[in-house]
Design brief:
Blueprint (H helix, E strand, L loop, with lengths): L5 H23 L4 E8 L3 H6 L9 H7 L1 E3 L2 E3 L6 H10 L3 H4 L5 E4 L4 E4 L8 E2 L15 H8 L6 E5 L2 H8 L5 E6 L4 E5 L8 H8 L2 H6 L46 H17 L10 E8 L13 H24 L5 E7 L7 H6 L5 E3 L1 H16 L5 E5 L2 E4 L1 H6 L4 H12 L5 E6 H5 L8 H8 L8 E5 L3 E3 L15 E2 L2 E5 L5 E3 L3 E2 L3 H9 L18
Parallel strand pairs: 1-10, 1-11, 2-20, 3-21, 7-8, 7-10, 12-17
Antiparallel strand pairs: 2-19, 3-18, 4-5, 6-9, 8-9, 11-19, 13-14, 14-16, 15-16
Helix pairs in contact: 4-7, 10-11
């Protein structure tokens, strides 16, 4: 048997020591924990109005002690939280990542389907069968977990399934969202750990329902609020029962429109943080992603015009304080990067604009399509020339057009020209005009191109005038902002991030490359963004 010489032994010892030092140096160059917070309805204007009411340890701590990116826009058309979040997480647009909205038109089935619907999956605690299989690009979370298999971890807690799954991407360990009918946490079997053990505990031990049974009343004296309540209560100012139904015909409750939902998300997020020991590994970073909301019951405007809306912000501020304190005590905020962003939300609703004599309106496609169908029949014969419509996309009956040996491009242009006659419509383009346009710049056509995908684009795509919002037959908005440029608040706080206001123009596709750079991992595979340079200095 050969034994190592003294020099060989020293060489081995020095090698081991150097590897340890290298690991420490490597880990010191990146954060141990990434915490992402998406707030549905978040607006900078709201933050500014309530600034003096916030505690120094919540929103104010993140904004004043971190980086406030003041000029960040979505380079896509508003079509729902799914596409907004997918854009942030993948650093890419629907043109590449495939997530064109919360729903899409399935041409082969002639049906409107959820973008996360997946019949191949099983629901856990729910009949919903959902996944991220239509997300065609990787996210920064996917890239981190691919780089550190079995070491890095990611958990997601959200109010809704669209938000949970788009935040979790393809590879999160577990995601959970609120079931506001049965009052429990649920998930999909798509993710390897299923429903988090801690979410299941909250379902079983009654702690979930403890939040639901708490009536929502003002946090402070009602006379200290800027605005009056939407629904006044003589004793408290306002009062809501989170278990009340959204409407007489709905099985869902108003839970997601009350502070109880935010507190549930924060509570489960903190349990997962502590019990799964996120951020405690000095070499392999972890991710915790949370989705909150400042929506209120029965609100008719996204503006800060009710005591309920103010109270939602003030109570969310308390939840964020608790979260920051927990992170600091367990991992250290200096070892954590926290980023917070909002979705595309109109600053003013069409109703509010109209009441102030500013042109605006709600566009429902049914009447327009009925007249379009009659017009095409008058020209080409009594046939069904329109097969479907969804989200500003008109789908022609290609089989019938081919059967009648008509020129498809001519009919496309005829439809586009006809649609310009309707109130609320700004422009109309054929699919080839959209797909063949350049992807650079900030023109209307570029934003439309970014927002479409070859697998789900219609044959004619319309746009609406400023101030107009599309609604479906249930009066649900199909995207909530029709601004020419749609901005979102974006804040970074924690690890090596200097307090600063960043006025440079960036887009939401720049968030994922920024975090990937911090984590020293490959950027998402369809990323078109660039790191926010001010955060790298």
């Amino acid at each position: 048997m050969n034994f190592p010489t003294r020099n060989s032994f020293l060489t081995i010892v020095l090698f081991i020591i150097s590897q340890g030092l290298l690991a420490q140096t490597f880990s010191a160059e990146r954060p141990r924990l990434i915490v992402g917070i998406m707030v549905d309805g978040l607006q900078q204007k709201h933050i500014d109005l309530l600034w003096n009411y916030f505690d120094s340890s919540g929103f104010k701590k993140i904004i004043t002690q971190g980086a406030n990116c003041q000029n960040v826009s979505y380079n896509i058309v508003s079509a729902g939280n799914s596409s907004d979040i997918a854009t942030v997480m993948s650093g890419s647009t629907p043109y590449y990542n495939g997530i064109v909205g919360n729903n899409y038109y399935n041409r082969s089935e002639n049906t409107i389907e959820s973008i996360i619907q997946d019949d191949a999956q099983v629901g856990i605690g729910t009949n919903q069968t959902l996944s991220a299989h239509k997300l065609l690009a990787s996210t920064f979370v996917d890239e981190l977990l691919l780089a550190n298999p079995k070491n890095s971890k990611c958990y997601v807690v959200a109010q809704g399934p669209d938000e949970a799954i788009m935040l979790g991407g393809h590879m999160a360990n577990s995601v959970a969202w609120l079931d506001d009918v049965n009052m429990k946490w649920v998930t999909t079997g798509y993710y390897k750990e299923g429903l988090s053990h801690w979410a299941d505990d909250m379902n079983m031990d009654g702690s979930f329902k403890n939040y639901v049974i708490r009536p929502w009343v003002p946090l402070f004296n009602i006379n200290t609020y800027y605005s009056k309540p939407n629904r006044e209560d003589k004793k408290y100012g306002f009062m809501y029962d989170p278990s009340s139904k959204k409407s007489k015909t709905s099985a869902a409750s108003i839970l997601k429109y009350t502070p109880s939902a935010n507190s549930l998300v924060a509570d489960l997020g903190m349990k997962i943080l502590v019990e799964n020991k996120l951020g405690t590994d000095v070499i392999y970073p972890d991710v915790l992603l949370l989705q909150f909301s400042v929506r209120t019951p029965f609100e008719k405007t996204t503006a800060l015009q009710s005591a309920e809306k103010e109270d939602m912000y003030l109570r969310l501020d308390k939840d964020i304080q608790n979260l920051l304190k927990k992170i600091d005590s367990k991992i250290g905020l200096n070892n954590t990067v926290l980023f917070m962003f909002g979705n595309q939300t109109g600053i003013h609703s069409p109703t509010e604009l109209g009441e102030n004599k500013i042109p605006a309106g709600y566009f429902n496609a049914d009447r327009s399509l009925a007249l379009l169908s009659s017009y095409l029949m008058a020209i080409y014969g009594q046939q069904k020339w329109i097969s479907g419509y969804y989200g500003k996309n008109i789908f022609l009956n290609k089989a019938k057009i081919e059967e009648k040996k008509l020129n498809f491009s001519t009919i496309q242009q005829t439809v586009a020209d006809f649609m310009l006659n309707f109130e609320g419509i700004q422009s109309a383009f054929t699919a080839s005009q959209v797909l063949n346009s350049g992807g650079n710049g900030s023109s209307e056509l570029t934003r439309i191109r970014n927002s479409t995908n070859k697998n789900s684009i219609g044959d004619v795509i319309i746009t609406l005038l400023p101030g107009w919002v599309e609604v479906d037959n249930k009066n649900n908005p199909v995207g909530e902002s029709n601004a020419i440029v749609s901005y979102t608040p974006l804040y970074f706080y924690g690890w090596k991030i200097k307090p600063q206001n960043i006025s440079t123009s960036y887009q939401t596709t720049d968030v994922a490359p920024t975090i990937s750079r911090m984590l020293n991992t490959p950027m998402p595979n369809a990323s078109i963004g660039k790191p926010i340079e001010e955060l790298m200095k």
